[in-house]
Amino acid sequence: MSSFSSFMSHNMQYDTKSGVVRFGVMGDVTEIPMHYQVDTILYYSDSGINQAVENWGQVLTTKYHKKSSLMEADFSINYLGYYTDNGAYYYYKTEPNKTYDVTMLDVVAYAASKDIPYGYLQYDSWWYYKGIGNGVKNWTSRPDIFPNGMDKLYEDTGFPVVAHNRYWSSDTTYAKQNGGKYNFYVETEKAIPADTNFWKDLIRSSKTWGLITYEQDWLDREFLDLKITRSNVTVANNWLKEMGEAASECDVTIQYCMALPRHIMQSVEIQAVTQARVSGDYHPGNSQWKIGVTSMFAHALYVAPYKDTFWTTTVQSGSPYRLSTEPNTALQAAISTLSKGPVGPSDGIGNTDRNLLMKCCRLDGLILKPSRPITSTDETILKLAFPAMEGAANAEAEVYTTYSDIHVYSSAKQFMLRFGIVLITDLTTSEYSVAPSAMYLDKINMETKMYKAFQGHPGTDTKIYDVDATGMLSVPKCGVKDFQLWHLSPVVSMGNSTLVILGEREKWVPVSSRRITGVEIKDGNFLIDLQGKPTEVITMDFLLNTNLVSVSCTVPDSGTTRVSVHSKTCFYT
């Protein structure tokens, strides 16, 4: 059950004593305009929790014409970026005796020296002016932070920017009440824009210093701490829509942070909202990577789930977090990649584990994503609701699954192959097994009778196992550091030949449509089309009639190549 319209003024409450669900307009609203309408939807499905949420989302996105195309094309979702937000090494910290602009230039130079393919930089709340209540007074760069200005830094780095913003202070210089030129509602500590031209001018002017994604943080506080947003049924709605319309007009996307469910719901009416952080703030060593349920919600509404930043090495001396360490670097990197959202590490200069980081992407920084964000299995969610349920993993276990789809064609037919992925932590249950159907493999691989399973992490098991389509994959006990990551590849038959694409087994997603653009079956041969950065060496593993075949190709200037599995050769196209 959820809101179906008027998302920012719709409230729902569950009374635990009476078991009654109440829904309607917010209780603090003082006036309701004539003909104002609030709708609620009750959606039911017998296809399981994940499928029910996804189908519910399709109803909403269809009603409000929200498309996934902008999310799928968003540069800051698709490419590796460098972050400076809470949890980052350079969060309110620079290199010793250097300004922020020099520090960012040093980050770019270090990345280039190590061939780390960052595609953009994220600037957090340290760069702009703050006023009353630590809110935003003016969203322009301070000269003590960027002495030569943001335009010059953009010119010097060549990197586009994801830029953070928070709630507006009551003394913001943009408000007419404070001598500015724009309409705002101003209260004791906070303020909120009420002017379409404000957003257009703000975002348009920011394009000069490389803005590609506007990150609106502190959404919960901006909504909850203002009386006008809780007592008026249209102010909060207009605030988000006007922000979104201006972003769309300027070809800028929006990331939501610290959002309430109502904000994510409202995004179905705002095409520019392509991503949202679905976790708490990252801090080295914390467990905010547990995003299996929240990712399900965001994904259903065409919003890419973002895990937040992470470190790639355990100890980074001199960080703002004193003695804090990150013991689970591999898990952080894996979840970030499998989330299908932005991937934005935040190591200090000299601290990046490049080998670990590059498991997420191609040499040009394009993230090798699955076809769907990784989410908690239905069984995992049911176990939380019904702890006594038998046959499931222990309640503390995190069991996440997803898949990748690859297009296959021949002169006779076309079809999709689906490759399964399962990630598990904190498993204490003995003899725990996962069915291929938990990875949604039964939804598309109708003719597949057998899968080959191999371990992606921790890498202690190098065997390749047979898993029947109606059978189970056995997974050993594990903790967090030694989390279990397994991949299932379908066995494809053609005459007397069989093929299993194992893919790039050193990557978090060995088989991704960002790498494999198609498979052609022709003249008794399997031809695999690949793409990558020119000069990049791609190594793909296959099982051809049970024999392990490994083929390495150097990508030509065209960025595409084709592998002949039978002849173990590359054709440069």
What does it look like?
The chain is globular and about 80 Å long. The model has no long low-confidence stretch (mean pLDDT 96). It has 573 residues and is α+β, with helices and mostly antiparallel strands. Helices cover 21% and strands 29% of the residues.
Strand content: 25-35%
State the oligomer. single chain
Rg, nearest Å: 25 Å
Number of strands: 32
The total of helices stands at: 14
- Classify the secondary structure makeup into a structural class: alpha+beta
Report the major sheet: 10 strands, mixed
Task: Give the averaged pLDDT, no decimals.
Answer: 96
Identify the overall geometry.
globular
Amount of helix:
10-25%
Terminal CA distance reads 52 Å
Point out poorly predicted stretches: none
Question: What are the main properties of this structure?
Answer:
573 residues; alpha+beta; 10-stranded mixed beta sheet; 7-stranded parallel beta sheet; 14 helices; 29% strand
Brief digest:
The protein is of the alpha+beta class and 573 residues long.
How would the blueprint of this fold be written?
Blueprint: E1 2-3, E2 10-15, E3 20-25, E4 40-41, H1 49-63, H2 69-73, H3 75-78, E5 81-82, H4 100-113, E6 120-123, E7 128-130, E8 136-141, H5 150-157, E9 161-165, E10 168-169, E11 184-186, E12 190-193, H6 196-206, E13 211-216, H7 219-224, H8 227-231, H9 235-249, E14 253-256, H10 261-266, E15 273-277, H11 294-300, E16 304-306, H12 329-338, H13 354-357, E17 375-376, H14 378-385, E18 398-410, E19 414-425, E20 432-434, E21 450-457, E22 465-468, E23 473-475, E24 484-490, E25 492-494, E26 497-503, E27 516-522, E28 525-531, E29 537-544, E30 547-554, E31 560-564, E32 569-572
Parallel strand pairs: 5-6, 6-9, 9-13, 13-14, 14-15, 15-16, 18-27
Antiparallel strand pairs: 1-4, 2-3, 7-8, 10-12, 11-12, 17-18, 18-19, 19-24, 20-23, 21-22, 21-24, 25-26, 26-29, 27-28, 28-31, 29-30, 31-32
